[in-house]
């Protein structure tokens, strides 16, 4: 209950303050993931906290660059891990109260990072020639009976998970 309330309190904090708070909560509650209660599925917020702390770390570095290609490279080189951390944190909780607390923490650190990256990308595309920012490449011919899996940049996090499983 204490951890739930502390995560809910992050909702209105500045991103940098919320990140610091998440790291402090990890110091206090992180060990709970090794307790028997976690093994029994009775500590979902403590399990989610691990991913929230990862999210806090990944969102410390904004998605920036001189042009759209640099920004997309920034995302592909590691920014996708923020998206993955959000999904992993939310996957740990099921009850509405638990979900609300995780969502509050996500909102505090993830939303500003997303908005800053989106604005940077929009500005880069507006400043440059669109065709050079997003070149169109024709697909190469594929052998018969080939399965082609397409993953766009918004789901690069899932593509990396699939790659790891394969």
Write up what this structure looks like.
- The chain is mostly helical and 166 residues long.
- It has 8 helices and no strands.
- The longest helix has 32 residues, at 96-127.
- The mean pLDDT is 89.
Cα radius of gyration in angstroms = 19 Å
| Relative helix content | 55-70%
Give the uncertain stretches in residue-range form: none
How would you sum up the global shape? flat
- Name the quaternary structure: single chain
Strand-and-helix sequence, N→C?
A: HHHHHHHH
Count of helical segments? 8
List keywords for this structure.
166 residues, mainly alpha, 67% helix, flat
Layout of helices and strands:
Blueprint lengths: L1 H7 L6 H15 L6 H4 L4 H15 L9 H24 L4 H32 L2 H4 L22 H10 L1
Helix pairs in contact: 1-6, 2-4, 2-6, 4-5, 4-6, 5-6
At a glance:
This protein has 166 residues and is an all-alpha fold. The chain has helices at residues 2-8, 15-29, 36-39, 44-58, 68-91, 96-127, 130-133, 156-165.
């Amino acid at each position: 209950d204490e951890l739930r309330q502390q995560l809910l309190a992050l909702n209105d904090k500045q991103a940098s303050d919320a990140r610091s708070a998440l790291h402090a909560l990890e110091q206090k509650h992180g060990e709970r993931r090794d307790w028997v209660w976690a093994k029994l599925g009775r500590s979902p917020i403590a399990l989610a906290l691990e991913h929230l702390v990862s999210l806090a770390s990944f969102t410390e570095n904004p998605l920036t660059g001189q042009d759209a290609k640099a920004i997309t490279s920034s995302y592909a080189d590691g920014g996708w891990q923020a998206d993955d951390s959000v999904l992993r944190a939310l996957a740990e909780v099921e009850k509405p109260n638990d979900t609300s607390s995780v969502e509050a923490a996500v909102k505090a650190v993830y939303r500003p990072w997303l908005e800053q990256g989106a604005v940077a990308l929009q500005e880069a595309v507006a400043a440059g020639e669109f065709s050079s920012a997003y070149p169109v490449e024709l697909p190469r011919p594929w052998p018969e009976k080939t399965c082609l899996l397409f993953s766009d940049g918004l789901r690069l996090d899932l593509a990396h998970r699939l790659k790891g499983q394969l």
